[in-house]
# Entry
Amino acid sequence: MKRVSILGATGSVGQSTIDLISRDPDAYDVVALTGGGNVARLAADARALKADLAVVAQEDLLPDLRAALAGSGLEAAAGRDALIEAARRPADWVMSAIVGAAGLAPGLAALEQGATLALANKESLVTAGPLLIATAKAHGARILPVDSEHSAIFQALVGEDAAAVTRVILTASGGAFRDWPLERLAAATVAEASSHPNWDMGQRITIDSASMFNKALEMIEAREFFGFTPDQIEVLVHPQSLVHALVGFCDGGLMAHVGPPDMRHAIGYALNWPDRRSLPVATLDLAAVGTLEFRAPCETRYPALRLAREVMAAGGLSGAIFNAAKERALDHFIAGRVRFTDMSAIVEDTLSVLAARPEARCDDPTLDVVAHMDHLARDEADRAAMTRQV
Ligand code: NAD
Ligand code: MG
# Structure
């Protein structure tokens, strides 16, 4: 039996992971499930999967979780330290599906106990890629990509010589505002930004798809995970979301990964790796699809892509600054304090204040150093947001 833990079990990726595991209960021994605040969901899944431990991030929800697990004999805990302890419980495979930089410390804890980390939480690679990869190496642990584009690249690279790769193309749906006139973007509402044309995902990543901050994070993720140079990483708008990524080789060949927009493919690939097993994913009927479209992204519509290139060029802790500023800008947008188009301006302002500082030049940071920069960037982004408040 494979011992598995799911961090962020109550979210979109977490629930898709549970869906796969529930289909084959005899194959998995569930160690820990964690959630942010949805105690009812967390407790129901912990009972159904007979997890050893359930942890809720919000400390004040511990009595609720205990009540929901009463009589089950399952362990309950709450708070940030408990999350890290849950990630540290010996397991063979840990899904990292917390949203945001909050996923970094638990992900590191899972690697420290030698688990294979299935990484949906791209923010941890953007914030602290070198630290995550060094931690995996030091503990003989492995990181497998779960972001659909990075899973696609990973699959296209099987059996290939990395030195023969010349380019990688990440596809993007273009998000909710792909076809909006540019002058309407400033007035876009949270509700409008929260609907994705093709994927069903958590609210934050859905809004990040509309702004393409999600693709910007993924460019940096591709650089950190695979070591591609910034000029090898391209982005194409592909409205159908069926081709997830393409890898180009020195002989001109391009390997594309094609499949329906269903995260259970990428999650299942990481769960079964290095084997392939059948998954409950629809069979694609390309004749019915008919046409696959591709076009270059407009950088005026999506300034996040330019910022990602600036971050990759600057290196050091600029990824941590970028991610933290983006998280705060998104918080302010969701709270109705700033406009949709202010988010990129807030991130740009924050980078311009912090990325040139000597302490941002660190290429080999510890978790404390990263956390300090993350904190500074959140404060700076809050200041930048204040000046733009609507
Ligand atoms: P979600 O919002 O649906 O779920 C996030 C999970 O994290 C929930 O369990 C939530 O309770 C928990 N959480 C939130 N804040 C927390 C905190 N401070 N501490 C601990 N737990 C916390 O998000 P999602 O869409 O499932 O995305 C999860 C991660 O996977 C993100 O990094 C996202 O970028 C990545 N991802 C998601 C998709 C997708 O299809 N949803 C695809 C690719 C990558
Ligand atoms: Mg993705």
The pocket of magnesium ion (ligand 2) is lined by residues 147-149, 218 (CB under 6 Å). The domain at 315-386 is CATH 1.10.1740.10 (Rna Polymerase Sigma Factor; Chain: A). The first helix runs from residue 12 to 22.
